[in-house]
Target: Very long-chain fatty acid transport protein
Amino acid sequence: MDHLKNMRSLITRPRIAMLASAAIAYLATASICLALLLALAGYAAAGGWRFLRVAALTAPRDARGLVVLLRTRWMLRQMIARRRGIAQLFGATAAANSHRVCFLYEDQSWTFRQVDEYSNRVANLLKESGHRPGQVVAILAESRPQFACLWLGAAKAGVVSALINSNLRAQSLLHCLHAADATSLIFGAELASAVLEVAPSLPAGLRLYCLGGGNGGLSNAADLDANLLRASTLQPAYPVKQGPNAKDRLFYIYTSGTTGMPKAAVISHLRFAMMSNTIGLFFGLGLGDILYDCLPLYHTAGGILGIGQAFLRGVTVVIKRKFSASAFWDDCARYQCTAAQYIGEICRYLLAQPAKQSDRRHRVRVMFGNGLRPQIWREFQQRFGVDKMGEFYGATESNCNMVNIDNTVGAVGFLSQIAPSVYPLRLVRVDPDTGEPLRNPRDQLCVPAGPGEPGELIGSVVPGDAIRGIDGYVCKQATEKKMLRNVLRHGDCYFSTGDVLVMDELGYMYFRDRTGDTFRWKGENVEACLSNVLSLADCAVYGVEVPGNEGRAGMAAVADPEGRGVEVARLAQHLPHLLPAYARPLFLRIVRHIEATGTFKMKKTELRKDGFDPDRCCGDPLYYLCCRSGQYLALDGPAFAAIARGEIRF
Model:
């Protein structure tokens, strides 16, 4: 049945007209050129002109994407065939650039040779202390050159690293150690207090190493710096005779934990190479470039897309311990950076800074990341003089990755409309209330989303394929939960990202929301509108349940860090001119600050749980939108009870 449906989809009126026109022209004139011209004319006249228009507009973009895809596939195949992992690829880079600068950090300068020797010390120390291939060493430290050298050294010894979010504490920290089944923990001295807090509950037999001198106040912790000074700088022999398997695990990166405990996502050598190399190829990064990486190195963007440019492409990377909006452009000028990274709300934070001369006193030509709001895209480029913004989409644990390579405002990437099967990502319609994919009642297959229609992004899973395969999570059950089966045909399998996007007729993709949040109102980008009205204040928009109403209603938390008060009357005045009625938030909550993840994404889970119940909102001012007056009115206990009884309706 599926094969029959595929055959029917190939037989269209434009294609029949094209073949008929070509046949008639060739039989009449015997001219191949004339036959081709008439074939195109017949195809266009029969309705195919839309496809021809799209093809003409997107062919250069698609061709560039295809070249990068083919080059990346070739590199990954060579890694598999020659049994080369990231340590071996770095070794080749270091050998060719031994005296060039690999890392810049504060006033320090690390050459590729120094990085190679430091990581060799790490590898030799791990081997001498009894660490075996496949065992896991957890790393808990703030960003610095040693962070990347530690996991690189572990890889040289065949040891897997678990890169733990340096903001985690107590149960979340313990959970990450247990989830990775770590046998050792390397922690920065600056985070010793976090380890001390959980010391009585640490896994039995866990070996502790303190980075930064001393033992961090833990009597059973070894001084890592002192031990490394005694270790050899020579390249250690790989513990497996035939060399590394490129499909082996390199390290674990944890999800942000905004919807529960962090999950450990597996990053293989292949996946690290694929992600890093693709970004480098698309944006032309190489020798001579200096990349400003102010992002956490425990995260995909900073730790893979940033560090990978140094390890695989010879780019000099500036590492910052923490992001600073006020120092961003001064740093870029100081280090003569030609590229920079961003994520989450960083661009908005930079735009909110007072204007100063260093805004344009830099050499940054490209910035890449995700989270740049369309409303400030052009303003950001014009103020700071950055030629290209490389917005991308990527989930750490998935096979769904896209890049905006031509500066199309708001797009997170593209899918070819000429040859969609080359990179088989799809959008499928979802229930706006449950977030579950909608299925056709006749065959129980998912319903594809058309251009302009919101849908969940899914990626075809091809086991064993270097690009289409899935590394997933350490927990196999968690990986299986992300699998969608019987999607477009019976027996197929797709990875479910949980993200809602919209595709336009040219194949450009635009992020809308997570399926956990209702996207019918969020699709209008309420957060950006609120933030603009309130002078770039932090805002988080989420869905809340209203008694007696189906689905969820929009609610916005607005940050008022100095307690000056939020002009809710101004919001009520301006929002009707910016948002349709269905997109305006029905409830407002004024908070001192909105908690964010380590990657500058707003945490909404607790806000969503609190809803608009005054008893759960810790005394924060609450407001509801009065449908009669169009004003936001105070929401107290009696008003909440009236809403619950249905006396106040929306």
